[in-house]
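B., you asked whether I could sanity-check this one before it goes into the benchmark set. Here's the sequence:
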Amino acid sequence: MNILIFGPNGCGKGTQGAIVQKMYDITHVESGGLFRENIGKGTELGKKAKEFIDRGDLVPDSITIPMILDRLKKDDCKNGWLLDGFPRNPEQAAALNESLNAASMEIDFVIEIELDRDTARNRIMGRRLCENDNNHPNNIYIEEIMPKKVDGNLVCRVCGGKLSARADDQDEGAINKRHEIYYDTVNGTKAAVDFFEKLAQNSKVTKFVKLDGKPSVKEVSEALKKAITK
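And here's what the prediction gave me:
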C-alpha cells in the first residue's frame, strides 16, 4: 500500500498518518528527515543537498526526488510507504508522479486533511513533542491527546517522556509563513494536492480521500479508516 498524505501544519496529519502506518504495516517516509539522514550519513545526494542548504538555497528537485525514490526502494518499504512532506508545489507533484511511473510505483491513496487556518494555527501552538518519539501525539488544546500530568509536570500521554515545544510552533509569524506555502492554490502545496486529485479522477488505481480535520481525532480516524478500507 503506497500512500501520499497532505494537510496543513496543525491538522493532525502526524496522528492520522501513524494510524494508517499501523493499519497497513508500512514505512513512514518524511522528506525533512530524509535530508537530515542523508547529510548525516554523508551520502552523495546528502553532500549535494548540503551545498544548497549551507548557502541558504532550496534543494532542487533533481536531488530531492532521487533521494525520495532511493528511500522508497529500500527493503523496509517493500510492503508499502506513507510519504509525508513532499511534494510542496505543482511542479514537484508532476515531477514526482513522472518519477514514480518510471520506477513502476503506483500510488494507492492520496489523503488530504482539510482544516481552516485559524484552527490549524491554534493547534500548532498547543503541540508538544515527546523526547522519545515525535510521533507520540500530545497537544495541550486538544482534550483527546492532552499530555498527562505527573508531579505537577506535563509528560507524554503515550510513554511518559519529557515534553517540549518547538520554538517555531510558538512563533505566529513562522506559522503564517508555513501556512502561506501550504494554502497557496496556484504555486503552493494546495496546488500539488489539486494535481493529484485530478490525476485520481482519471486513474483506475489511485483513490483520492478528502477528510475534514476539524472534528475530534477519533472521528477523523474513523472517517479515514472507513475511506481507505472500502
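One thing to flag: Residues 2-116+172-228 form a domain with the Rossmann fold fold (CATH 3.40.50.300). Otherwise nothing jumped out at me.
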